[in-house]
Amino acid sequence: MKAKDVFTLRIDSYGMEGEGVAHADGYTFFVPYAMAGEQVKVAVDRVKGSVVFAHIIKMLSPSLDRLVPDCPLFGKCGGCTLRHLPYDLQRQIKTENVRALFRKNAAIEPGDIPFFGSGADAYRNKIALPFGVENGQPVLGMYKRGTHKVLSLEKCPLHGEWIEPLIKCVLSFVKNNDLSVYDERSGKGLLRHLVARRLPLDGGFTYSVILVVNGSKIPQEKALAELLERTLPGKVSLYLCKNTLRNNVILTSDIRTVMGEDHIRAEICGGVWEVSPLAFLQVNFPVAEAIYRRVVECIPQGKTVVDAYSGTGIMSALLANKAKNVIGIEVIPDAVKDANQNAARYGVADKVRHLCGEVENLLPNLAEELGEYVLVVDPPRAGLDEKVVDTLLAYPPESIVYVSCSPATLTRDLARLTQKYKINSVELYDMFPSTPHVETLCLLRKQ
Which of 80, 156, 298, 405 is catalytic? Predict the structure, then answer.
C-alpha cells in the first residue's frame, strides 16, 4: 500500500470529520466528501499503519441523498466540508460521533442527547479573508485546502449577503489606490487580511472592519472608511491592525481606530455588550444565546458562581441575575476590562468581579477559599489543564456546567471528573452547520 495506489471502495460509515469510511483488504480508508452507500474510485494520499487517507478520483455510484453544493469553492477551500450532506444527516453524524467519544475516552454511555440545530446558511457573523493575487490582480478569498494559495471569493453561503458588497468595496479601493498584497515568502507587500464582523444592534446591524497590514498605515485610509460607510447598511467602524510578523498569526494587539468607535457593541440575550475589536465573540449568535440561556438555567438560585475562561464577561453578567455573586477568571487583560465594563452596563457590577490570570493558577486558592460554589467552564479547544481537573477533584464544586467546542477533550476530562461527579445531562448545540464541529454542554453534579 503506497501513495497514488487506486482502489474501488464502497463507503460504509462516517468518520469524526464527517468523511466517508470504508474497509478493504484489512485497511480502513478515510475519504473526504464521500457518503455512506456510495461506490467510489479513490487514490491513496498517505498510509499510516492500517489507516489509509485517500481522495475521490471518480464517483461510480452517488448517494441519492447527496446535495449539489451551491458554492464554487466547495471541496477546495475546506471551510464547509459537510455541505454535500442533508442537514438531518449532519446532525445524526455529529451526535453519533459524540457518543463514540464518550464511550472511547470516558467509558460512558451518555444516554439521550438533545440536539439544538441552527439555520444551515448565513449564520456566521465574522469572516477573515487573506489577500492574494490571481491573474496579476489583488483578490480576497480562502486558502486552498492544505495550502496557502488564496482562492478568490465573491460570496459565501455561510456568511450571507453582507460580505459580497464588503469584498467588492475593499477590492475596488485596493485597485484604485494600487496597493500591494503581502507575499509570505518575501515578507513584502502591504495588505495581509480583511477581518470583519456584522453584529446585531438596535434592530439593525453594526459593522466592525479590520484591515491587517504589513506596516502602520495605508494611503487614503479615511477615504476607505467613508466608502465602507456608504456601502454597508449600518454603523461602520474601521480599524488598522499592524502585523509585520513572519508567521501565520492574523491579528496583533497593535490596532488603531480609523473611523467609528474604539469598542464595538452587540445585542445578545436582551443586553447590549461593548467589546474591543479584537475580543472573542461566538460566530453564531442564535446558538450562542441558546447556550447562554441554558447555562443560566443549569445553575441553582442564590449560589456563588465561578465563571472560568470568562472572556468579555457576557456569561458572567447573565449569571449574576440568578447567582448570589459571580467571579470571572480570564487571562487576557483587555477582555477583563471589557468584562468589568459590561457588568456595569448590565447593572450587575455589585455582584460580579473579574480576576485576570490563568485558570489553573487562580482556581486552586479560590476554590479552597470559597468552599461551596458552582463552576461554569468554557475552555479553549485544548480543554481543561490537568491542574484545573486536580483542583476540581480536591475542592469539588456543587455542580459544573462544562461548555466545550471539542468533544474529544471534553470526554478526556470527563474520564477523570467522573471520579467525583455524575453526568446529569449532555446536550449538543450546532454552532457550525456544514462543518464537523459541534458545541457540547455537559451538566455535572457532585456525587
Answer: 405
